Structure formats: C-alpha cells, structure tokens
Amino acid sequence: MNQTINVDQLNSALTSLRTLRSSVSHVFETLSHGLRADHGEDGKDKFLSELQELLNNVNINVRDLEQTVNSLPIPTAPFNLGNTTFLSQDTTQDRQALYTQLVNSYKWTDKIHEYSSFAYTLLNQNSLKRSNINSATKRRGKMQSNHNVAPLQVDNVINNIGRSYNDMKITISRPFASNAVVQINLSHVLKAVVAFKGLLMEWVMVKGYGETLDLWTESRHNVFRKVTENAHAAMLHFYSPMIPELAVRSFMTWLHSYVNLFSDPCKRCGCHLHHTSMLPPAWRDFRSLEPFHDECKQ
C-alpha cells in the first residue's frame, strides 16, 4: 500500500514539473514573438498584461511543485544499483564519467527497443509480400533497369503508340546521345516535347501550335503553361518503373485528350472559360479524361 502511495505521489510531482516547464515555455514563446497584430493600438499594455499573467502562472506552478516535492517521502535506504555503483568509485580520471555515459547508453538502447517495437507492429500491418518489387524479383531473378534500353526498343514502343492516333503526329530525335526526345503535334491545338531516359519520361514541355518548341522555354500563353504544369503531374502519376510501356501509353492517351482543349466545357461548371482565371478547362482527369478547370477539379 505504501508503495502505491509513493508511486502516485511521484507521478503527481512529475505532472507538476511538466506543468511548470510548459508554463515557462509559454513565457519564452511570448517573449520571442513580441508585439503582435492582434494586440491592437494598445499593444504594449496588452503585451505586458499578457506577460504578467504568464509569470503569475509560473509562480503558482512553482509553489505547486514545491508542495508536491515536499510531500514525497524520503528514501530510508539507498537505491540498489548493483555492481554499477563501483564505477563511480574508480579513481582514474578518464573513467569517472563512465557511469553517466552508461546511464545515457541504457536510456538510448531502451528508446531504440521501444521504437523498434512500434516499427515492427506497423510493418506487420502493411505487408509487402505481394508488391511489384517482390513479384518482379521472383519472376526475373533481379530487377531490370529501364534507363538502359536499346534505342530500337524505345522507337518501337513510341511508334506503336503513335499509330493509334490519326490526329497526333509523333517525331523521335536524339540530339543528346542515345536518349530520345519526342515531339508531339496534336491536331493544330498544341505541341509538346517529352524527354526520355530509356523508357522513362523525365521532362515535358507544352506550347501553342504556333510557338517554337524546345525543352527549356515556357510558353508565352497562360493556358499552355497550365497544361505543362498538369503534364508534369500526369507524368509522375503514370510513372511505373516495372511497366514502363504502360506508363508511356497511359501518358500519351492522357495528353491526346487535350485535342478538344478549346471546345469541350468544364464537366463541373459547364463553362468554357472560368470566371476568375478566364482559362479553358486545362485539367484532364487521370481516369475518365474529362475536362475540368483547376478551380473545379476538387
């Protein structure tokens, strides 16, 4: 019974200590922020009154902590520390701090054990046994790199995609060594250039049909700058290092949906131009390919 009472009193003392530390932290936080806009015209007086109130809370918490600590019973015998008590009796100068280091090491390993238990529980809840990485490893023995793909294979994949669309012309060039740069002309609506590394898309730039096409200069039209921004989001969405052909085909299908950029209305508001941005629906849903304004896609 006495042990239970001592534990309760110790918990009460620790709670008072935490409360005191929190109130002191509030004082220093208020001092660091200084005068704020919500203090109004009489900011200095309000700031001083707020600080005075926080200091009063600190004084109250200090008194509570002193009362709680004074109520704790004094240990009748020294704590049993086992053989570690002899470490502090070593007269060698470089070993006198060994006991403190040992205590810190024990605390550190105890936290490592606790965090490892949490990580083990979380990882068991999210099993990776059926992931693409493990399944591909079983089928192929090791993961295949899609950065080092033969140029002929890249050309075949892109040309096969291009044959699926009559109104989208695809041209392949290699100005930078063996990596392909694909230029896309979409039915007198827009032009795009996509930089590849192997079969993985790395960069997209979309411009108006009458603009000069390159990889680095943005379009002078707001609508095509918005389409470029959305194209980067689509490139990341369809990214699939395990099935790169599907990723390229999905992206090209998504980009082809802009063939009606200036004719299809927004599926949410039904308007061609948004009343604030005055832009056509420049966003295409990744699944349905339906057009939306950026403001209406939420």
Brief summary:
This protein has 298 residues and is of the alpha+beta class.
Distance between the termini: 61 Å
Question: Which bin fits the share of residues in helices?
Answer: 40-55%
Mean of all residue-level pLDDT scores: 81
**Spatial order of strands in the largest sheet:** 1-2-3-4
Number of helices: 7
Poorly predicted tracts of residues: 1-5
Commentary on this structure:
- Strand 3 and strand 4 form a beta hairpin.
- The N terminus is likely disordered.
- The chain is of the alpha+beta class.
- Helix 1 packs antiparallel against helix 2.
- It has a 4-stranded antiparallel beta sheet.
- The two termini are 61 Å apart.
- Keywords: Nucleus, Transcription, Transcription regulation.
Characteristics:
298 residues; 4-stranded antiparallel β-sheet; 7 helices
Write the layout of secondary structure elements.
Elements: H1 2-33, H2 43-70, H3 98-125, H4 132-140, H5 151-162, E1 168-176, E2 179-186, E3 190-197, E4 200-208, H6 222-237, H7 244-256, E5 283-284, E6 291-292
Antiparallel strand pairs: 1-2, 2-3, 3-4, 5-6
